[in-house]
Amino acid sequence: MCLVCIAFASWVLKTANPQVGDAWKAVLLANVSALSAIRYLRKYVKIEAATSEKKPRDTTPSES
């Protein structure tokens, strides 16, 4: 999903005509998409870190 938002933001900026007075809308849309992707990634990383900390680690030496 994040990659889709970033790709969409990039596409919007590439296809926007800077000569048109409504170009600010395209820039705003691209920025919102990019910020949403960044927020999602940060939340996902925090969740992954929390779940990896909760998993019990077996530190006992194995018997051979």
From TrEMBL:
What keywords are assigned to this protein?
Signal
GO CC annotations, alphabetized:
cytoplasm; nucleus
Sorted alphabetically, the Gene Ontology BP terms of this entry are: regulation of DNA-templated transcription; response to muscle activity
Q: Which PANTHER family match?
A: PGC-1 AND ERR-INDUCED REGULATOR IN MUSCLE PROTEIN 1 (PTHR47282)
Q: Which InterPro entries match?
A: Perm1 (IPR043442)
Signal sequence residues:
1-18
Task: Name the chain's protein.
Answer: Uncharacterized protein
The organism's superkingdom is given as Eukaryota
